[in-house]
Amino acid sequence: MTTQKEKLPIGMFDSGVGGMTVLKALRQRTPCEDVIYLGDTARLPYGTKSPQTISRYAVQCAAELVRRGIKLLVVACNTASAVALAPLREAYPDIPVIGVVEPGARAACNATQNGTIAVIATESTIAGGAYQHAIHAIAPEARIIGHPCPLFVSLAEEGWLDGDIPEAVAARYLSPIFNPASGTGNPVVPDTLVLGCTHFPLLAPAIRNVVNSSTVIVDSAATTADTVHEELIRLNLQRPKNGCGTVEYLTTDDAARFARTGTRFLGTPITEREVELVDL
Amino acid sequence: MTTQKEKLPIGMFDSGVGGMTVLKALRQRTPCEDVIYLGDTARLPYGTKSPQTISRYAVQCAAELVRRGIKLLVVACNTASAVALAPLREAYPDIPVIGVVEPGARAACNATQNGTIAVIATESTIAGGAYQHAIHAIAPEARIIGHPCPLFVSLAEEGWLDGDIPEAVAARYLSPIFNPASGTGNPVVPDTLVLGCTHFPLLAPAIRNVVNSSTVIVDSAATTADTVHEELIRLNLQRPKNGCGTVEYLTTDDAARFARTGTRFLGTPITEREVELVDL
Questions:
Q1: Is A77 annotated as catalytic?
Q2: Neighbour tally for A115: CB within 10 Å
Q3: Last residue of one domain, picked from the residues A199, A220, A241
């Protein structure tokens, strides 16, 4: 039976295509694994919804993936990772569940030298305090500056990734944190910035222009892929290394749009024919 | 029985708070009427969803309002007006249903001198061609330039309504239409611009900077309020003019956020206590 289980795919869901930055990192880290990616595009964005609603949607996404058979579940969505891990683990106690918050928090704690960490994310993730809690669980003395940056999501989806507009938006959000005026009562400038939303890695070049050259930018997609890899080894769930794994795509609305915007996030082409429409 | 019916409120729904630009215009146009406003915030935005999903959600919103008793239904959402009027009229044949597309299209046809009309809206509204069809039904010879402007929605919700960023976004979207380079094959510059999304009136100052000083900007909120007023008179459904009407607010998620962003769109304060949470 163990042999069967290790051959199962990894299940992964997000509210949309943003989680494909995690999928991309995972494909690079564990290329032999099969993956089923579900984007709940009919109900995106999760970032503005209540914790109760987000948890309900997350469990519905997981149910669809579990029904198809998976060996491990990746919550490739910061908003859902922030509020829905406990309900997911309760609903599926036999399946390891990995979110994107804890790996990002751990990487930030490892990176910071001055103990001051900035976290940018959606409004809901910041308000829920998930990164703040996860960082303080590892480094109780850390100073954390959280700031919601919802326009980064729209810029990433529109594909406006460089040039004046993303740089102006990044400056408006981040300058008060990284270039504070004297006497603002924020004396320590963070040396580490967590991109706490899966959309944000696409805007890393514009963000890099605003922060200091020495600032460490933590991309939680990459750190989550590392964690998944470690867990597969620890649980003896690695797929035998014979060739390249496959990816199945599921969406809850508009396969054409999913393929088009997903291609931008994944960096490799997805065709509409590869995308299956599901009703949750 | 007729006396009873005219005392009923007007029902109005949108995917979120954007429709409050229509509510604001309606309160100015018909201040004695009671209104129930439903914002389906748990499932916003509609603009990226399929016509089938949008129609299903629209009928669910209408059902909640009809259950409470309304005399007329305003679809205060361009996306839903574009695709869901027919299913709504089929579901509720006894209730007059007014969308925001047809009034805006009619106002644009009245305004244009050179027969060239630009329409900006969400991706779904433009792709669905609702404004194009509505304008051509009135003015078959009109030239129409449709362009999706999704970032305007995010800017309006973030409250970034003036300054460099909204102006740069407006210029990036609209300059190719209103200041075309010579030889682009777009010789006639539109003299009329339809704001085909309820969020866009908030950005009218930034938009005004990019278009020509003589361009007529058609705000479909105001034209829809005029149409509702005319229909109430035509159907003998006006409420007796004794005092100011009331507004009830319903939302499908997060009353606090609804009150906060709604206040920005309505221009007058809404408190969390006034907002009722409903499950559709």
A1: yes
A2: 15
A3: A220
Domain range enclosing B230 = 2-99+222-277
B233-272 confidence digits (pLDDT tens): 999 999 988 789 999 999 998 899 899 999 989 989 999 9
Residue B128's nearest CA partner among B96, B110, B101, B108 is B101
Active site residue A61: no
Q: B280: burial class by Cβ within 10 Å (0-12, 13-18, 19+)?
A: middle
Regarding whether A108 and A93 lie in a shared domain, the answer is no
Q: Is B174 on the interface with A (CB under 8 A)?
A: no
Estimate to the nearest angstrom the gap between the alpha carbon of A87 and the chain centroid. Answer: 18
B189 and B204, same structural domain?
yes
| B132-151 confidence digits (pLDDT tens) | 999 999 999 999 999 999 99
Could A48 and B168 be called an inter-chain contact, meaning their C-beta atoms sit closer than 8 Å?
A: no
Residues 6+ apart with CB under 8 A from A69: A8, A9
CA distance A171 to A173: 5
> How long, in residues, is chain B?
280
B213 and B234 in a single domain? The answer is no
Q: Name the active-site residue from A61, A109, A149, A197.
A: A197
How many domains, chain A? 2
